[in-house]
């Protein structure tokens, strides 16, 4: 019988996950399909338990449910530490995982940038920054967190056990850094003129990873190019966090390039 997978969120109509995973299932000729479900906050528990009861193959969880989903799953150690779940598997009860940090690491790796023993300045202290901070610190990166609201950077740095600094010190911070990550919504459509850093504080030798993927070429990536730094866009993280979820659910090697093409087509 056909296996069903899905993503739960609200709103959900712009999700690229159905296109990405259905392309992977087609490529591997698996009798599976993936749908987007708009689920209200108060029904999240029912939706997760219902998916298990109906024999779903797995779920992704997206905004605004990632934190709440922790309560209704048995989270693995990383998801518990992050405090958020983006992938649910039903192979062994209801397990909660978080693949966002690994997705970010893979995006850098495929651009030839390793994270262990690197100095990373992570701008942002929301959900995505949290996942990246825990995963990167666990992998041996030296992480410094800066955020528009400094108190949130301080709290996240304390949780992770890493440093924090004021955004106003970004220029000095970057002088000794290998990687700058934008994990904020700055630059995201429709605020495409917004950026966390201008060309003059970036330098050759710095990898500038913008996890925003809409638009594909953000203002920050353009500034990085002008400064001779290495620009890395957010699509790769989206694809690799999805690829890792695919691997968890199916045990199969995900067709990463097919998934990437589906996402790029979805973004037009
Ligand atoms: N590529 C991927 O796979 C992937 C995965 C997840 C998320 N994302 C993208 O990452 C971004 C953040 O997502 P999230 O889930 O972490 O959101 P979130 O939890 O709402 O956090 C938003 C973060 O952005 C900061 N921020 C918002 N506008 C800003 C601005 N104009 N200048 C500076 N900082 C600003 C916020 O700072 P304050 O604390 O001061 O409000 C906060 O740190 C979104 O664009 C999302 O689409 C990409």
TrEMBL record:
Superkingdom: Archaea
Active-site annotation: 66 (proton acceptor)
Pathway assigned in UniProt: Metabolic intermediate biosynthesis; chorismate biosynthesis; chorismate from D-erythrose 4-phosphate and phosphoenolpyruvate: step 4/7
Molecular function (Gene Ontology), one example: shikimate 3-dehydrogenase (NADP+) activity
The keyword Amino-acid biosynthesis belongs to this UniProt entry's keyword annotation: yes
Chain ranges of the Quinate/shikimate 5-dehydrogenase/glutamyl-tRNA reductase domain: 115-187
Keywords: Amino-acid biosynthesis, Aromatic amino acid biosynthesis, NADP, Oxidoreductase
Transmembrane portions of the chain: none
Residue stretches making up the Shikimate dehydrogenase substrate binding N-terminal domain: 7-88
Coiled-coil annotated residue ranges, if any: none
Annotated ranges, domain SDH C-terminal: 234-264
Binding sites annotated in the UniProt record for NADP(+): 124-128, 147-152, 211, 234
E.C. number(s) listed in UniProt: 1.1.1.25
GO biological process: amino acid biosynthetic process; aromatic amino acid family biosynthetic process; chorismate biosynthetic process; shikimate metabolic process
The UniProt record lists the keyword NADP: yes
Entries under SUPFAM superfamilies matching the protein: Aminoacid dehydrogenase-like, N-terminal domain (SSF53223), NAD(P)-binding Rossmann-fold domains (SSF51735)
InterPro entries in alphabetical order: Aminoacid_DH-like_N_sf, NAD(P)-bd_dom_sf, SDH_C, Shikimate_DH, Shikimate_DH-bd_N, Shikimate_DH_fam, Shikm_DH/Glu-tRNA_Rdtase
Residues annotated as binding shikimate: 15-17, 62, 86, 100, 213, 241
UniProt-listed Pfam families: SDH_C (PF18317), Shikimate_DH (PF01488), Shikimate_dh_N (PF08501)
Reactions catalysed: shikimate + NADP(+) = 3-dehydroshikimate + NADPH + H(+)
Quaternary state and interactors: Homodimer.
Its job: Involved in the biosynthesis of the chorismate, which leads to the biosynthesis of aromatic amino acids. Catalyzes the reversible NADPH linked reduction of 3-dehydroshikimate (DHSA) to yield shikimate (SA).
Family of the protein in this entry: Belongs to the shikimate dehydrogenase family.
HAMAP family for the chain: Shikimate_DH_AroE
Name under which the protein is recorded: Shikimate dehydrogenase (NADP(+))
The organism of origin for this protein: Methanohalophilus mahii (strain ATCC 35705 / DSM 5219 / SLP)
Source lineage: Archaea, Methanobacteriati, Methanobacteriota, Stenosarchaea group, Methanomicrobia
Gene it is expressed from: aroE
């Amino acid at each position: 019988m056909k296996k069903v997978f899905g993503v739960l969120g609200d709103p959900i109509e712009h999700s690229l996950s159905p296109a990405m995973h259905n392309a992977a299932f087609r490529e591997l000729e698996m009798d599976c399909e993936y749908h987007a479900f708009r689920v209200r906050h108060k029904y999240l528990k029912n939706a997760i338990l219902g998916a298990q009861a109906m024999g779903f193959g797995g779920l992704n969880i997206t905004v605004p449910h990632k934190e709440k989903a922790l309560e209704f799953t048995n989270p693995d150690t990383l998801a518990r530490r992050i405090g958020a779940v983006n992938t649910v598997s039903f192979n062994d009860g209801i397990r909660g995982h978080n693949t966002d940090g690994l997705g970010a690491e893979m995006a850098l790796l495929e651009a030839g940038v390793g994270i262990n023993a690197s100095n990373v300045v992570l701008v942002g202290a929301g959900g995505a920054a949290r996942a990246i901070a825990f995963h990167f610190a666990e992998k041996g990166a030296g992480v410094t967190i800066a955020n528009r609201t400094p108190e949130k950077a301080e709290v996240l740095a304390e949780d992770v056990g890493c440093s924090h600094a004021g955004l106003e010190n970004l220029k000095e911070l970057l002088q000794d850094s290998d990687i700058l990550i934008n994990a904020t919504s700055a630059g995201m459509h429709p605020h495409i003129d917004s950026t966390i850093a201008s060309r003059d504080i970036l330098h050759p030798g710095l990898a500038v990873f913008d996890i925003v993927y809409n638009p594909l070429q953000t203002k920050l990536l353009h500034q990085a190019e002008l400064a001779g730094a290495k620009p890395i866009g957010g699509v790769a993280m989206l694809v690799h966090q999805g690829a890792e979820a695919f691997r968890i659910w199916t045990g199969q090697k995900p067709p990463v390039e097919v998934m990437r093409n589906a996402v790029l087509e979805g973004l037009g």
